Amino acid sequence: MVRQPRSRSVDWLWWATSSGELRPFLDHPDHDQQEVAREKSAVAVQLARLGDPLMDCLTEIAPNVLADAVWRLPNPTRTDTLRALRVPPARRPTATIAMHALNRLRRQTPSVRGYTAQVVTLPVLRVLLPTTLDTDSDELDGEILESLKTTTLTPDLVRLTALADWGFSCQAAALLRLALTEADLALPAWPADVIADIAAACRRFEDFCRDRMCGVTDPPSPLRTFDEALGHARAAADSVAAAVAAGRVPEEADLAILARVGPAAAEARGAVATLTGTDVDTLPEDRPGLADAITAHEAAVHARELAALARIRGLAGPATQTSALAELRRLAEELTDHDERWDAAERRCVVALVDLATLIDTIAADRDDGVDELAENVRPYLPDPTVVNAALRGRLAWGKALRSEGGGIEVEVGAAGAGAGGPHEAAETSGGGSASPGADVAADGGLGAGAYGGDPSVAEGAAQANGDGAEDGLATGSGDAADGRAGVAGSGAGSGVSGSGSGGSGSGSSGLGTVSVGVSGAVDGADAGADSGGVAAGVVAPDTSGAASGAASSEGRASLSSDGEPAESGQVGAGGVGGVGGEAGEASAGGEGSEDADAVAATAAAAADALGALIGRGDYAAAYPLTVAEPGRAAALRALAYATSARSDTGALAMSLRDELDGMAMREPSHDRATQLLIVAAAARAAVLCGHSTYGLLQEAASGLGDLPAVAALAKRVAAGSAQGLLGGTRNLGAMQALAEAEASAQACADAAAEALLHPRNLRFPRATSIAQLWWRPDDGLLGRLLRQAADNDRRVLDEVAEAQRRLTKHHELENRLAAVDEEFRHGKGHRLEGPARRRLLEYARESVETVGHWVDATRKVAETEADAEAWIAGPLTDLRHALLADRVDAERELARVVARTGDPITAGAAKAAADSLTATLNLLDGFPLTGPEPAPETVLAAAPTDSIAPVDRVVSADAATAGGSAASGSPVIAGASEVSETSGSHEDTGATEVTGATGVVEGDPESTAGGGGEGGALGGGRGIG
After folding, report:
1. Quick one: pLDDT band at residue 915, thresholds 50, 70, 90?
2. Domain extents in the chain
3. pTM surpassing 0.90?
4. How far apart are CA 110 and CA 114, in angstroms?
5. Residue pair 752/851 in contact by the 8 Å Cβ criterion
């Protein structure tokens, strides 16, 4: 039976009439829907005091009345309803069959029984209710009472209609109230005081619906006129269908009503185009498509609002605005925590904060268009309006280090970084000297304590190695600006703020490793830093004197560009593996020459190959440390790792996956192809397996896949199903398993029919062979046509094929058909067909009839499984499943083409990982569950075991190799996993540039690595690092 999805969608809210059905809507994300569910629940509670009033109505109704009501339904709804009640749909039910159907309806579960009653009585409701939607209470009561007095419908059917359909609208609730009070349709066993309470609850629900849908306080929906036209058109269509069935000419008024649907649809498309800011020609013409467009627009707006609130939580400014900014951050955090329940005042605050973020960005971009208007719009709704003045003077920034009036530095980091939403520790430093413009990056966890994977003991050791400066939480380095090395000051274990030495370059020492990050220039020494030719993009460059070395680890390394910002994709991250390509040519720490740059470029390319190979084969634990310098890609890989390991929607991994995807949804969409593919794979698995709504995330990712239309279409289908609540996690998948098995059985029978159709039938007798060719002709043959229809697996011809197959299985039916066709071939001459040829021909025929019978039985099993399943299984979820499986082939072909043709190994690996993940995800809809135990979340991204093969293990610079006892020859050496421990003391005479790939550990200086690298082994996940 084709039904609407019984989910938390808005449409199903109006179909729900019992407390159990309404309970999921009480925590609906939309506050308006919560209010509707709350008001309807009040009526449902009063109706429940009658026991089971719907069953009481079905007990009173006569079978022929039910049969007449079902026969009013238009096709295919009528056919589906009759099949669900186990009634042959070909002809009008007899009295006996109607009695069986009524008994089956009474035996159904309350949820299914209520929905079936709604479907059966919906045409009756349209007859009883007035066509005018916006009438006041008195006029509405008068029209409904007049309809109840003049109707020719039986009182039992009217009572059933009122009890089944009261929740559709305020008019339907008024029908129930008047039917129980004014029309005397209440059963004698129902108490009068309960009837009075039900009438009062209906009156309150009517008032609520009238104020909500017919008032003028809220702007009308763009689809309101379209809905009204469709409502009138449905009633007119019933009248037209009845007139045509009776052989009469339809009324002109009904045809005119139908003609209004087209203009109403065009008006609705224009309104939706104005609302969403899109071209009207790109919008669909049907009502569900327009509703999806509005939902997508609202989801995108809400995502932008949450992203703006996340940025406000990381807002920084001068010390004079400390209290005001703290209040502003607190307000943004409160609004973010209950974003699903904003009232009107909170909504205005959200709009003001979004405008404040726009104002700050406009000032930062040195533009003045609309600044005054934005300021005036924002000022009334902020806790402290003086924040607007600071924004207009350019004193606010997103977690930046700001220059104070005295030349010092003030750093104020809020509760969340710009667009990240993660926690920060507030830090504020000031002084007359210089400080690194990247201090805020250190506070964000890129360097400092976060650079050691969040291990406090490692950070403390690094701070002690840095000397006295680490005691105050600041690592102060010294160095010569003319030397050309721009070093990262060591890690501040206390405040997490890194400062550079005077002159724009500095360095600190640590026994853990060496990394040089290009931070050219500071506040008081920009010229000296610029003249020093600072190194860009964090490439290994140890100081052989042992005076300067930074620290990095597999999980905390950050690539910094020349202005202190995290390096974009394409720059070489710390250790040369965080991001590949880009500025690798600037990796020479002391201006060594182009040969060192070529070596680093080669190792960067090898690192990219390694990362792509790891992602492609699903070794996310080994690949994850290599993506830390790319936060967006790291988050996507982390989400895919959680999604791949999850086995249910209730485990700890499912919770981690939801949190990860929710965090990604609040950030700006990524334009990196590898990241987009990883997001699609992870979000699709979360939607199907965990029932998590990933509509906005999938829509954003799909919008960036224009050159992969099949993958984008598949992502959008999953997004739509997620938004409609069709994908409900393992419960839905379990319910789909029986249906998938039945469909697989039907498909197997169809394949057998196709094979039987092609089977050769040479009978060594000309006349028998001619008869076989005639019978098994695919277009019009007696058996060939049935086999072709079964091979097509078309359920629409099931009844026709079943009837033909039933006739052919009658006693002697095939023999009689063979005798008749043999007579036509003989023309009354010669002998009848006898002997082995006749017996073999009949055996072939019986085999074909049996094959068709198997397909008929299997297809009927599919229909029975759908009818026995819950309402949302049989229709839209099944349709979505078929659409996804149809898109599967083209999507897999596109991803395979990306793997074969792209020149980026990371994109190729992401495409292969996405293809494998999507295949497993769609297999879930086919009834193939995931196998194996579910690991703990903390073990999913644990370091790879030592026998994991990594294409690239490590890269150290030529200087470090020379200091360890090796002679430079200018050629890079890629050390395998088995070679790492063997090279701990000294290196071969290759002058190698070696890079850590799978572990992501940056090698230490020669003095710290000579002893076998105990701490390096700890950071590298258990590997012995030399």
Report:
1. very high
2. 10-216, 232-285, 296-411, 439-595, 613-732+878-940, 741-870, 944-1019
3. no
4. 6
5. yes
